[in-house]
Structures are given as C-alpha cells and as structure tokens.
Amino acid sequence: VRLVESGGGAVRAGGSLRLSCVASGGTFGRYAMGWFRQAPGKEREFVGTITWSGGFKQYGDPVKDRFTISRDNDKKTVYLQMNSLKAEDTAVYYCAGRKEPDPSDDEFSYDYWGQGTQVTVSS
Predict the structure, then answer these.
(1) Whether the Cβ atoms of residue 67 and residue 19 lie closer than 8 Å to each other
(2) pLDDT of the residue at 26
(3) Which residues, including other chains, have CB under 8 Å from residue 80's CB and lie 6 or more apart?
(4) DSSP bridge partners of 82
(5) pLDDT score at 6
C-alpha cells in the first residue's frame, strides 16, 4: 500500500488548510487511517484517527475542535481539515494506515506511512 499526502503549505495563524492522503494498492476500505505529525526536535504526535467506515473518529487533545478527519473510500482518500491553525501546529504531517478496521492513537500499530507533507503556520 502506498500513501501520498498533499495539501501542506504555509499559512498564517488563524487560517485553514486541508490535507489529503491518497492510497494505492491494498484494500483501503478495510483499513483504519490516522494522521500524525512531527515538529523539529520533537517526537511524532497523534493527530487523529478514523475507522474504516468513517463512523468513529478520535483526536489528539491539541487539535480537538479545530481539526476534522474524514475519508472517501470510493476515492481511496483520507482528509484532514485544519482550522484555526496555530504556530504550534507547524510540523510535518504524516498519513498512516493500519490493517485493522478499528482506529488507534498508537503510531506503532500502523502498517503503512506516507512520506509526509510540511505545514508551516506563522504567527
């Protein structure tokens, strides 16, 4: 399974971005998907996860009520809508997939990773 993220860029604080992650190969519709991020000098951090059906979503505390994860199984794509961005949201954002239908906030439970997309928020 190959995952390719897009949609990153530079934005001012308070702005919005939408990240996309397109999957190829595998059975995307059966995989739970997640988003993680890593800022310079910091460990990778959980952002959000979604079940295979999209019926359940979970978010990390720093992004709750600002970020929304969604998916379109027909397009084999998972999205991360990021609103009210803050400087501390600056990081490389990674899309990840796991060969299980249930979501997870544990990065080590994911089997597939994208190459990452940079998000830079200026204050």
Answers:
(1) no
(2) 80
(3) 18, 19, 21, 35, 47, 48, 67, 68, 69, 93
(4) 17, 67
(5) 98
CB atoms closer than 10 angstroms to residue 53: 12
Strands 112-113 and 91-98: antiparallel
First to last CA, the chain: 37
Low-confidence ranges of the chain (pLDDT < 70): none
Tokens of 58: 């979970």
13's CB contacts (< 8 A; 6+ apart) are 85, 86, 87, 121, 122, 123
Question: Helices (H), strands (E): how many in the chain?
Answer: 0, 11
Q: Report the distance separating Cα 115 and Cα 105, nearest Å.
A: 19
Q: What is the pLDDT of residue 16?
A: 98
* 10, 117 contact by CB (below 8 A): no
Please give the Cα distance from 11 to 119 (Å, whole number). Answer: 8
* Two structure tokens written together for 97: 């997939």
Task: Judge contact between 34 and 47, C-beta under 8 A.
Answer: yes
